[in-house]
Design a protein that fits this description.
two-stranded antiparallel sheet; alpha+beta; globular; two-stranded antiparallel ribbon
């Protein structure tokens, strides 16, 4: 008896050396044409330095204030945290921070202590975007 061939999902996204089937080997998340290949090879595994963290945090606050300080709901923050951040290889569970940008990402309702609460912020790897 002949073994059945495994059908891999067809992904409508640009070629990526980090794609394994329908999964991103960098983020460990399922990909689709909207989020795949949004980061460049040089930054896929790059971790933010102290200077990067300070710069990223400063820019996030400036952007947030200029746009009128819009916030995501606590339910939306929890959804992003559980569905994207916690599953991503670039998430530091101990520090509750993104290794890619260095920002704190957690359940907090305080925007200055949680990048996810600021609706002007997006994932540096393209897993979620601004919500204005």
């Amino acid at each position: 008896m002949k073994p059945k061939a495994v059908q891999l999902p067809i992904i409508d996204a640009p070629p990526c050396e980090y794609r394994v089937g329908a999964m991103c080997a960098v983020t460990s998340l399922e990909i689709n044409s909207e989020i795949c290949n949004r980061c460049v090879t040089e930054t896929k595994a790059a971790q933010a330095t102290f200077t990067d963290k300070v710069g990223n945090f400063t820019l996030a606050i400036k952007r947030w204030v200029v746009m009128g300080r819009p916030v995501r709901s606590d339910a939306r923050v929890l959804e992003i945290l559980e569905n994207h951040c916690h599953k991503c290889s670039m998430f530091d569970h101990e520090k509750q921070a993104c290794k890619s940008c260095g920002c704190s990402v957690n359940k907090s309702s305080f925007p200055l202590g949680n990048k996810l609460k600021m609706a002007t912020e997006e994932c540096p790897l393209g897993q979620f975007g601004m919500e204005l």
